[in-house]
Amino acid sequence: MTRTGIGYDSHRLAEGRPLILGGVLIPHELGLAGHSDADVLTHAVIDALLGAAGLGDIGHHFPDTDELWKGADSMALLVRVISMVGDARLRLVNVDSTVIIERPKLAPHREEIRARLAAGLGVEPGCVNVKASTGEGIGFVGRGEGVAALAIATLEPLV
Ligand code: MG
Q1: Spans of all domains in the chain
Q2: SS3 content of the chain, % helix, strand, coil (to 5)
Q3: For a designed S-S bond to 43, which of 9, 16, 23, 95 qualifies (C-beta 3.0 to 4.6 A apart)?
């Protein structure tokens, strides 16, 4: 049986923080604030994987009250989660995602993000898609206060 899961995350933009999306450091004057590295895209992908596998959510596995995950590299968390997926005798078919960000433009970084996510997930880049959208000047994204990300993952049984 094929299984699907969705993921959503948002983080606040702040000065003095790196902007890391899908494990890629994006040059920008603001970055994402959070307990971990605040990689909003990777967090959405993690929740999509956990959702598809029926394994709860990112906060359950990596609580932000736990000092262990302070400043954590979200790509390392992603690798742990894909390992959990394998332990559940499931295999990743594909991931699709959308980053909702006003600035900077993600197009120049899209292929690198895709390749980095695919490497972390242990799949070909063709199994991972990364899209970008803006807030059209409205809402917290449009005002440049934060960045949001959505992801969907499809899993199938390991044979
Ligand atoms: Mg998060």
Answers
A1: 3-157
A2: 35, 30, 30
A3: 9
Q: 40-53 and 110-121 helices cross at what angle (nearest 10)?
A: 40
For residues 93-110, b (16+ Cβ closer than 10 Å) or e, as one string? ebbbbbbbbbeeebeebb
pTM of the complete model beyond 0.70: yes
Q: Write phi, then psi, for 74 (nearest 5 degrees).
A: -65, -25
Q: How far apart are CA 30 and CA 36, in angstroms?
A: 16
Residues with CB under 5 A from ligand 1 (ion): 9, 43
pLDDT in tens, 23-78: 999 999 999 999 889 999 999 999 999 999 999 999 999 988 888 888 789 999 99
CATH class of 3-157: alpha beta
Ligand 1 centroid to 147 CA: how many Å?
10
DSSP of 132-152, one letter per residue? EE--TT-HHHHTTSEEEEEEE
Q: Is the pLDDT of residue 140 over 90?
A: yes
